Amino acid sequence: MSTAPAPRREIPDATVARLPVYLRVLRTLLADGVDVVSSEELAEAAGVRSAGLRRDLSYLGSYGVRGVGYDVARLADEIARELGLTQDRFVAIVGMGNLGHALAAYSGFATRGFEVRWLVDNDPAIVGTQIAERCVVALEELTRQDPDGLIVVIATPPAQAQDVADAVVAMGVRSILNFAPCVLTVPDGVEVRKVDLATELQILAFHEQRGRDDLREVNP
Amino acid sequence: MSTAPAPRREIPDATVARLPVYLRVLRTLLADGVDVVSSEELAEAAGVRSAGLRRDLSYLGSYGVRGVGYDVARLADEIARELGLTQDRFVAIVGMGNLGHALAAYSGFATRGFEVRWLVDNDPAIVGTQIAERCVVALEELTRQDPDGLIVVIATPPAQAQDVADAVVAMGVRSILNFAPCVLTVPDGVEVRKVDLATELQILAFHEQRGRDDLREVNP
DNA sequence: CGATGTGAAACGGTTCACAGCT
DNA sequence: AGCTGTGAACCGTTTCACATCG
């Protein structure tokens, strides 16, 4: 028996993807001692249009003051709350190759509210060693942990990525960031985001080529 | 005097962003000895809908055979050509911290048609050393190179990213992949794509939280 | 017959322009 | 007077459904 649909504000995916950028800019402003900002200024700093910014923020509620602007601290808090960042979140990085190794040492996670709590690899020669002051464990070990709110970063070769995904989904993980250049298949309710470095370069290569062709048209 | 507009097919950005995925899948199929594939099968392997896949491919031209499917080798070639991958492309990685170091050693670039040709850092202690069998040079040195078709990967701390961008834009670079968590301002005609790891985690955190809330509604 | 290629409808997101509030 | 919040128009993309053709 399904009741009325949840009255929760449905925030568009495109907006969600921009909230982290706004948050980062707001925190920079805060550090600079700015305490009120207009949609125009914030949009400029975030690289978006002011109308779009106001639309995005309107999904969170009315936190601006007409004729004045937005309270920087207040808005930062609201966005952080909406993103679920009021509680610290934990990250497990699976695959201690070049990339996993660098991610383990990357300071950008900790400074933005994420604690890298587990480093995982299945190579017996690596399990038990220390990387970035953290002990590397086997996947088996990770799957015994509490999956609640845990984000798993997959940095294995593509051939093993699906197996890792299956294993962590089975333990209850519902958020995966995939660096392996392959498509992951997961059940509904599990969110996968992918970062494919070669794909990004290929997209740039396309525009690079198109740009050159355009120049030829004008100036053959 | 401008003549008739170029008859070039205008490929939507959304399609361009998927072409690299199709290409990767097609090359896997090729390696497995598959030589014909239907839109249904290819879409499944690429994680998209078959109708969308057919629409995407239609922008490249009619390379399918009705009642049969697509020739794998032919289609892979067409996509590679469209992406400008028939010529090898060069990459410069600027910033030899953790991330830059890992990217320099990452084999995923070379295997997908990109040669990492320059490693750049401005720390005198690092310039001149070898990383992944390549000598690290100063930014100054990079700016004397031919920018044509060069893609610059920025992996510096955010405070230096804009300066690096300005310098490489000035030398004529028109494609930048930015790993620094900040907004880059560049002139028209320069393409910037960004990869922000913490942002990806924050987007996942949002869905993670929403998922938990949804569970509570059903099962409080 | 079977799978492609594509009009047409549906959708989600962006932009415009201004009403509404401080 | 000034800036936010938003209805409405607009635009790009996705999906449907089927005519088309090998």
| Spatial order of strands in the largest sheet of chain A | 6-7-5-4-8-9-10
Strand tally of chain A: 10
| Shape assignment of chain A | globular
Largest interface between protein chains, with number of residues from each side: A-B, 67 and 68 residues
What is the quaternary state of this protein? Answer: homodimer
Q: Give the low-pLDDT segments of chain A.
A: 1-8
Domain count of chain A: 2
User: Could you tell me how far the N terminus lies from the C terminus of chain A, measured between alpha carbons in angstroms?
Assistant: 68 Å
Rounded to an integer in angstroms, the radius of gyration calculated over CA atoms of chain A is: 21 Å
What do you see in this structure?
The structure is a homodimer of 220-residue chains. In chain A, helix 1 (13-31) packs across helix 2 and helix 2 packs across helix 3. The first copy, chain A, has 220 residues and is an alpha/beta fold. In chain A, strand 8 (150-154), helix 7 (158-171) and strand 9 (175-178) form a beta-alpha-beta unit. Chain A starts with 12 loop residues before the first helix and ends with a helix. The first copy, chain A, has two domains: 13-82, Winged helix-like DNA-binding domain superfamily/Winged helix DNA-binding domain (Arc Repressor Mutant, subunit A), CATH 1.10.10; 89-199, Rossmann fold (3-Layer(aba) Sandwich). Chain A has helices at 13-31, 39-46, 50-58, 72-82, 98-105, 139-142, 158-171, 197-218; strands at residues 36-37, 64-65, 69-71, 89-94, 114-120, 130-131, 134-137, 150-154, 175-178, 191-194. The model of chain A is unreliable at 1-8 (pLDDT under 50). Helices cover 43% and strands 18% of the residues of chain A. The radius of gyration of chain A is 21 Å and the shape is globular. Chain A binds a DNA duplex (22 and 22 nucleotides) through helix 1, helix 3 and strand 2.
